[in-house]
């Protein structure tokens, strides 16, 4: 199998590259070569996605059985890439997101749920992260690829991805905070269901789909109801060896205190469908999600061994300051503690 991976130097991309090399595939990467060097077993072609001459030179290095885009987010750029590479590959795979669904996180979603309106030719003129624009931009990317590849395209739409190498900062923040010990502010109810998926499981399942010549769209998430918020935080405490005590504050009270959902307390969201992504289609196709505790333990090991995430503006968004947490812990009525 000859595979061209667009990107491949960050979080999901690194996991995909590692898995493809383990399979014995012939792996080519195309990126600017700024974030890391190509791992042993992969060939790096340096270039800029937004320079036509670079894309033409890249296409001349084909053909490939499949192109896998793990980083695209600007429809006009992704569409131009797909157009130039169409003669050089049989199959195009795009790493999309749960954010393409118009109803998420307000209602449960599956592959038939309505998407945001997207423009396959849009270039917003900025490359900065914008959470409000992210979903529609990814829809535009899907439309641009579908225009060039039709039913030869595959779209994988993961929920929140965790694991070693995470650069967004959700799980690393919780591990760091809980490792410090003391009373840790946590959003009740502890039994809230969550569905994060390990980056290595995303990579493995995506390449399994590639090997099977799958097309269409697949949601990727852990099974609904398998894991809870308490499972996540208790796993963090266990793997760090911390004596932290969780203070489960009522989420309605946290909202009144203007605690930012999703970021100040990472992965916390009050909307009932935030963790209601139906990934049954993927599970029937072979998706297997490792235990959440394993993801937590391996991420802690990666951090302890000196792992450093790729620098990204989103990292600073996550986590509550020590001063703000102390203020809220002091103000929380009755301050109930969970000693175990």
UniProtKB/TrEMBL annotation:
InterPro entries associated with the record = Epimerase_deHydtase (IPR001509), NAD(P)-bd_dom_sf (IPR036291)
The residue stretches assigned to a coiled coil in this entry are none
| Every NAD-dependent epimerase/dehydratase domain range | 3-82
Q: What is the protein name given in its UniProt record? A: Reductase
Organism for this UniProt entry? Spongiactinospora rosea
Q: What is the lineage of its organism?
A: Bacteria, Bacillati, Actinomycetota, Actinomycetes, Streptosporangiales
